[in-house]
C-alpha cells in the first residue's frame, strides 16, 4: 500500500469501537445488554420487543439512541451514562499502535457514536490516552449519529477538519459513505473486506497499516 495515497493527509480521524481495539474484545456485547435493558425499562416492553425496536432504530436512524430520541423523546445523557458503564479491565495496552499513531503527521482525533467520557476510558484502557489531539462523542454532533452526514459535518466544523486533507478509519462501512462523499481518504478496519466504491482501503490489522504510513 503506497504511502503516497496518504501523503496529502493532515488530519487523521479514528472511530473508537472495534477500530482502536480488536472486535474480539467484545465490548459491544456488554453495551448491547445495557441498551436492551434501557429500552425495556423506558418503554415498558419485553426483551424480544426491545431487541426488535433496537434493530429497527439502528437500520432507520443509525443508532438505538437516535431512534429513542426521535420516537420517544428520550434524554440522551442518562442513556449514554447507563449503556457505557461497562467493564474494560480485559482490554490490553497497545504500545505499538500508540507509537505509530503518535508519529502520524498532523492532527489526530477520535470520533465515536459513543460518548466522550466513554471514549476516554477506552483510550486509557488501551494505553492510547495522550496520543490524540481531541476526542469527540455523539454529544459533539448534537446527538446526530454516524452515518448521518450532519453528524460528520458538525464534528468536523467544530474541529476545523478539511476533508480534502483528511482520512477516516472505521469498522462500519456505512460510516465511510459520508466521509468519502466529503473527499476524505477512507479505510475500512475489519476482519473481512466489504465491497464498495466509498472504501479506498481495507485492513484487518490497524497497527500494521498505520505503521506503513509513518
Automatic annotation (TrEMBL):
The keyword NAD does not apply. It comes from the Bacteria. Transmembrane segments: none annotated. CDD domains: HAD_5NT. The keyword Hydrolase applies. Keywords: Hydrolase. GO terms for molecular function: hydrolase activity. InterPro entries: HAD-like_sf, HAD-SF_hydro_IA, HAD_sf, Pyr-5-nucltdase. PANTHER family: HALOACID DEHALOGENASE-LIKE HYDROLASE (PTHR12725). NCBIfam families: HAD-SF-IA-v3, Pyr-5-nucltdase. This is HAD family hydrolase. It comes from Actibacterium mucosum KCTC 23349.
Amino acid at each position: 500500500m503506497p504511502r503516497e495515497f496518504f501523503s496529502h493527509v493532515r488530519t487523521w480521524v479514528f472511530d473508537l469501537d472495534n477500530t482502536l481495539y480488536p472486535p474480539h474484545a467484545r465490548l459491544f456485547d456488554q453495551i448491547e445488554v445495557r441498551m436492551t435493558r434501557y429500552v425495556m425499562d423506558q418503554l415498558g416492553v419485553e426483551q424480544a420487543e426491545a431487541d426488535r425496536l433496537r434493530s429497527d432504530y439502528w437500520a432507520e436512524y443509525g443508532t438505538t439512541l437516535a431512534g429513542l430520541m426521535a420516537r420517544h423523546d428520550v434524554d440522551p445523557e442518562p442513556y449514554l451514562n447507563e449503556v457505557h458503564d461497562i467493564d474494560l479491565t480485559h482490554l490490553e495496552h497497545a504500545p505499538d499502535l500508540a507509537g505509530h499513531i503518535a508519529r502520524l503527521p498532523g492532527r489526530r482525533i477520535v470520533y465515536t457514536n459513543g460518548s466522550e467520557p466513554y471514549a476516554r476510558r477506552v483510550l486509557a484502557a488501551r494505553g492510547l490516552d495522550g496520543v490524540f489531539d481531541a476526542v469527540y462523542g455523539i454529544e459533539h454532533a448534537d446527538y446526530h449519529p454516524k452515518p448521518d452526514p450532519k453528524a460528520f459535518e458538525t464534528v468536523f466544523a467544530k474541529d476545523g477538519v478539511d476533508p480534502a486533507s483528511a482520512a477516516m478509519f472505521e469498522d462500519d462501512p456505512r460510516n465511510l459513505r459520508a466521509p468519502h462523499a466529503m473527499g476524505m481518504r477512507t479505510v475500512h478496519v475489519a476482519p473481512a473486506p466489504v465491497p464498495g466504491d466509498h472504501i479506498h482501503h481495507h485492513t484487518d490489522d490497524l497497527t500494521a497499516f498505520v505503521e506503513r504510513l509513518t
